Amino acid sequence: MNTETQKVQHELGDVAIKIHEMHKWYGSFHVLKDINLEVQSGERIVVCGPSGSGKSTMIRCINRLEEHQKGDIIVDGTELTNDLKNIEAVRREVGMVFQHFNLFPHLTVMENCTLAPIWVRKTPKTEAEAIAMQYLERVKIPEQAHKFPGQLSGGQQQRVAIARSLCMNPKIMLFDEPTSALDPEMIKEVLDVMIELAREGMTMICVTHEMGFAKTVANRVIFMDAGQIIEQNEPNEFFNNPQNERTQLFLSQILQH
Amino acid sequence: MTTQSTQKYEPGTHPDLPPPFTASGPVKWVRENLFSSPANIIMTLLAAFALYKMVPGMFSWAFTDATFLAADRNECRALSSGACWAFIVQRWELFTYGFYPEAERWRVNLTFVLLLVVIVGLLWENCPGRKWIIRFSIIFPFLAFWLIMGGFGLQRVTTDQFGGFMLTLIIGIVGISLSLPIGICLALGRQSNLPIIKYACIGFIEFIRGVPLITLLFVASTMLSYFLPPGTNFNLLLRVLIMVTLFASAYMAEVIRGGLQAIPKGQTEAADAMGLKYWASMRLIVLPQALKISIPGIVNTFIGLYKDSTLVIIIGLLDPLGIGQASLADNKWQGLSTEVYLFVAIFFFISCFAMARYSLYLERKLDTGHRN
To answer: Across the interface, which of B273, B285, B289 has its CB nearest the CB of A63?
Structure first.
């Protein structure tokens, strides 16, 4: 998919996220079963699997958009409990990019980017705008700063969404199928921004089916099915030598075309 | 036309051309809207004929044949065959101020002028000195209360002397400016996770919506004095204001709830994911969008409230309609109900039409090219 051939280097640090024996139910439906995952800071993880396998639900538990019912999630040293203080602390350090961008349509691109720094971090407005401009330049759309999201293309909107998350200077970035809602022409511009981010050493967890992206940047690929982590491995091994039957089937299906 | 359409271009080099004459401008409009089909042509001609028959007659009745100055109905009749506006001209002050003492009416006028300044300042974004007007609008309600009610150096005026357009404006503006915030709170409360708040809001909304406004006004005028401890004297106008406001708030809450439900869940999720707290995410993200899409419904409720203020006639407050009815009982001016009701109708139409136009302007202004 992408033109990047040089593998992004590993530089791992302390534990950024620790998920221990985590379970989640929707009503009586057991969506996540005994999830154990440890992510080092600087690590880049790609999560894949068939739809309904719980990939999105798992990463949404990491910033508590979904509540887990059993087990522990510790993000950047803070345990996620019902304590709102902890939840807010985690959310300040974890950025998230959504499949449908979720930009705020009534605010300009600039206002989208400065809202959280101003209201959550209490950054002065001029400073927040300078930081926002810097990130908008990094995602290569500084000239769109004063437009509304509705006036941008899908790829541009998703890049704004990435810039908006980065403005909070997060330690961890979660990507929930960031390219699934995009036209093929626009996928590359978003992936390029994400690869750039990976190069700079951002801790990333990415739910995606872009296998080219996984090969280029991931330290580890995780395969989920029916609410469980079935297999995880470094990308080469994962793609060339999948162990589990379910993984083999999945890979054969998505790599066919 | 044929020469143009036969001209060929290399693939990918076709320039932008203007549309053909018949596909743009007034010609297109007339063809599409007035003469698009045989049925449409017939309707257009019939409507034109009806207008031709009705408008000149109405115009001469209301203007050219009308009498504007006369002592009584008989003089009117003697002078011309058209409308007798002399009655309105003579009672103009009664229609405007009710029984407000004549010497104190400057206070009502002053309040009205200040009100216009505040309204223009709040509603018109490019108004000069808007910053100061917005600050002034915070003290305006207290100032207006003092000016109209008196006390502290001004002669006291009791609320039973209020009437006419002044009364309509008081009820309308108090109701409108209070029912929106209360409605927002009720709508948010109805979605609350806390059962006490949620069911209190649902109970309130459903009760108020389920009862006719007239019933509430009767309760306000008679029953409240049974419920309240003896000796508490609760001003009738105040009771009406409370009831009208609560009534409009319940409707407002449902209109806004519709708007809130139309906001995709992703908006609050994005706000949550950034670490915004509940109130910040409501105030900065959800409400601005929900209120924007609710504008037609909100203004609809405002207009309804404003016109419903005429119901106070039933409990003895004299709004313009009440003044009109009372005046018609005057022997000197019998048989002028057409003029009186038309006059009151025009007053209401102007105010309500202005609100409707402003709401359209606001919708256009807030449009950011986003479609859900």
So the answer is: B273
Reported as a pLDDT band with limits 50, 70 and 90, residue A187 is very high
pTM > 0.90: no
B273 closest CB neighbour out of A65, A104, A148? A65
Contact yes or no for A103 and B270 at CB 8 A: yes
ipTM: 0.89
- The DSSP-derived string for A72-106 is EEEETTEE-SS-HHHHHHHHHHEEEE-TT----TT
Cα–Cα distance measured from residue B302 to residue B177, given in angstroms and rounded to the nearest whole number: 9
Q: At what angle do helices B164-190 and B236-262 cross, to 10 degrees?
A: 40
Domains and CATH numbers, chain B: 21-52 (no CATH), 86-100+157-366 (1.10.3720.10)
Determine, for residues B269 and A119 on separate chains, whether the beta-carbon distance falls below 8 Å: no
Alpha carbon of A109 to those of A136, A148, A152, B177, B212: distances in Å?
A: 9, 6, 10, 32, 47
Per-residue pLDDT tens over the stretch A52-106: 899 999 999 999 999 999 999 999 888 998 888 999 999 999 999 999 999 999 9
CB–CB of B189/B181 below 8 Å?
Answer: no
Residue B245, classed as helix, strand or coil, is helix
